[in-house]
Amino acid sequence: MKRAILCAALLALAPFAAQAQSAAELLKASKTTDAVLTYGLGYDLNRFSPLTQINTKTVKKLVPKWSYSLADDQGQESQPIVYKGVMYVTTHKATMALDVNTGRQLWKTAYDYPQEVQRIACCGVTNRGVAIYEGKLFRTTLDAHVVAYDAATGKELWNEEAIPYHDGYTMTVTPLIADGVLILGVSGGEYGIRGFIEGRDPATGKSLWRRYTTAAPDEKGGDTWPGDTAKRGGAPAWLTGSYDPELGLVYWGTGNGGPWNAALRKGANLYICSMLALKPKTGELVWHYQFTPNDPFDYDGVNDPVLTTLKVDGKDRKVLLQANRNGYFYVLDRTNGEFIKGSQFVDKLTWADGLDPKTGVPIRSALTNKVLETGEETEIWPSMLGGKNWAPMAYSPKTGLAYVNSLNMGMKYKIAEADWRRGVMWLEADFAFVLPEDGNAGILRAIDPLTGKSKWTVPVGAPDNGGVLATAGDLVFTGHQTGEFSAYDASNGEKLWSYQTASGIEAPPVTWNQGGKQMVAVVSGFGAVMSMYVPHPVLGTVPKGGSVTVFQLAD
Fold first, then answer.
1. What rounded mean pLDDT belongs to the chain?
2. From its phi and psi, is residue 98 left (phi > 0), alpha (psi between -120 and 50) or beta?
């Protein structure tokens, strides 16, 4: 049963409710300063704000304005949406509307799902936020439903099951509205699922198209899978893509092959660990680029596809940037998927000996060949969490740098046999994390996209998995697993300000202008994948408990 919990003064608070929001507004989201309209602060996922009121000189005056308890102790990864004085934020089980000036709850709608679903949430019980469009909010749920709410009241408008969860499917992704279509993808790559991306009608929730992300034997690319292995081949699509309205293309990454033991599915395994360029109206695949063929180590290709223009060999090119889990930073031509450049961005990488300079295909190392051929335990860098995990990066067109929360961890990895069972994790491998000797498992980096070189680095100790925000005020904001929310000088990485929130931060911050004041907000709440698997000593000291904190400059 789904139930709506509306605050008693709802009618009195109706003036705060969002008006209908249009496609035209979404197209301008990256330049809009008085709202946060999309995941990533714009279709390009740059997570860059042109606001300058909070800058390197004024940031020391930044103070908390209000804080709101999410009343939830799971990991919090939601990015707030802000529109006409209302903030919308989610947990795994509720959606909330808050007055941005006071933090007062306007409405809260809870969602009930079977508790058994939490058992198949491989990497944390969480949700990453809502999309807003034409007066409606859209979110996904852990039991693989898609739900629409009235943005003014929180009333459920429609609820559609995307796919039964029993086979291991879940949903944590923030939906994307592109060309009037609601687009989303599934999680569950560790359970022998067949991943997919789909488009739905925002008005009714009805499915318009579905693009499976593993190629069946009778489809193009089907010959890259042995037998019928594509049926349980993984390739989840659990992070939100980007959209280029001029080209009419949505870019969406796909995840790991299933099971992890790549020897069981010899071949490239299209379209795992790939970037797909799709037409939003139909789901038609226009081009694809595969980062890690026959993915051996859970090197998902889902990380945020950031869109910008770079000068390459003296010519401006429309590019797509991605800091991939496999430890390489990619620059692709987003008009056709052509490989332009790929560079190692992590300090230690042993699974490959580089990339083919023409195609970008990784050259597997002797260590990787050894573990796949013998199954023996072998130390591999980076770990299965990657050189960068899900935490969204930021790209500043002002500095030309990408700001990335990178990971500095390896793993001891070996093959282990296991039969597929419905709804049971199916890896065919065992692993144990290897931490660096200095304990700095997380490093904030300012990366030159065309070289992969870091202009500056900030070791942060425990591995961070929260997003990054860059601003025209020459600042980089990010949160740490310790709960510290910090601002750094975008030019040199100097820490200029910090504030201790109530719990660890695993969500991306946002900023906007509210009545002449620049605001910054971040969701806090420790949990999810890091707390479940990483044995870093600092992580055992972090309290749980979700909250939202909003900051502004002191008068």
1. 95
2. beta
